[in-house]
Structure prediction request, 353 residues.
Amino acid sequence: MKMLVAGWFSFENGHATAGDMLARDVACEWMKAAGWSPDVSMAAPFEGGVDLDRVDPADYSHLLFVCGPFEQGELEARLLGRFGHCRLIGLNLSMSVPLDQWSPFDLLLERDSSRAAHPDIVFTSRTRKIPVIGVCRVEPFPGAADHLANAAIDRLVASGEMAVVEIDTRLDANTTGLRTAAEVEALIARVDVLITTRLHGLVLALKNGVPAIAIDPIAGGAKIRKQAQTIGWPIVFNTDCLSDVQLHRALTYCLTDDARRRAVQSAARARLWVDEAGDALIAALADPEKLERTYRARQASSSNGAWMDRYAVDRPVDNRGVARRRLRGSIARRIFQLVSAVTGRTTRRRGER
Prediction:
């Protein structure tokens, strides 16, 4: 008496789902509790078990097919053709063909059929809880070694079982389908740990009590490292000295209760200063004499705005200023053309000599 447990995970390209796998585990637990030691048929890309097409059907007295739809299709026909001599058991199946027209199982405990409907057995499945890890990456920009950071992040999240969620904080062109700042923050707030190369990834994580592994993409560290140091958050790395061992240790620590408490403390420390900054801004606008003095000094200084001449198109000026610049530009171009013409003729004459 030997049983083979099969399902859509037994067929290559069988479109097996997480639900199929969890139902398989429930069925196997029940069989083992009843004293059976069933074989389980698994097909690529899944590993383990036996190959449905290579086993000898004569080795089995029972076939249990678990979870999903069961219809009069090619795969079902092939299965029943090879194992028709077995006691056929259908568990947690949706039978689309009415049972009075087609009932291939000797024992059917359906999920739904023309006869009845029952709860899915996955309600009783037991799975271990794995961490949900958010990954928030900055896009490439001049001076950043983001490729090194991204490679280190990819190695880290591939090193163990975790649910990885990519989160993009850009809103003008969001790659993860998020539309508003509230949607971005809501997603960050619900992960267990955020790995980020963005400053506001760090900020939004700690703001919501989520430990963050911050990686500054600038060699030597720049604004992300400074922000982490300012608020007292210790899990920050520079791209130019990343270590896989250190990142593993950081992830292990960030999954602890202590890391969550420290994230809350860092956010509270940050809010104290931000509240003071808000008070200072309001006070300055209420008593604007100092601001006015600084403003007048800046207006009187020619050096402060000199660099803006390169970007004059963005500089707020009146129409008279635009006209004067256009006139100066026209005169300058004419002088340049005359000098070039003279220089060109002189050069050619020298060449002729």
Observations:
- The beta strands are 3-6, 39-40, 62-70, 87-95, 107-109, 132-136, 163-166, 193-196, 212-216, 236-238.
